[in-house]
Give the backbone structure.
Amino acid sequence: MEDKKLTPVKAIRLKCLDCCAGQVNEVKMCEVTNCSLHRFRLGKNPNINKVMSDEEREACRERLLRARVNREQNPMERLGYGFKPQTPKEQVPKPEGMKPLAQFTK
């Protein structure tokens, strides 16, 4: 038997089936519209079939290109750490009026 990857949408579908006692028709007729999984209950991502205009497609293409360039420039971000090295300009300055710790110990 081949291993099939469980995608997030398929996992949501299984959760909905579990919630509806395994009844496929109950999942289709689900009336809990305030559930955050309701839109995904049929095992399809409703956001994928969105028809994009040429302007939207170009904006997405530019965002993806910028993200790829940023990821190449920062390899730690590619690993999922969200780490951005701080340059001296980005370092947080110490607030004015901070007293050294030695003054508080006595």
Observations:
- Residues 49-78 form one domain.
- The two ends are 72 Å apart (CA to CA).
- The chain has five helices and no strands.
- The mean pLDDT is 78.
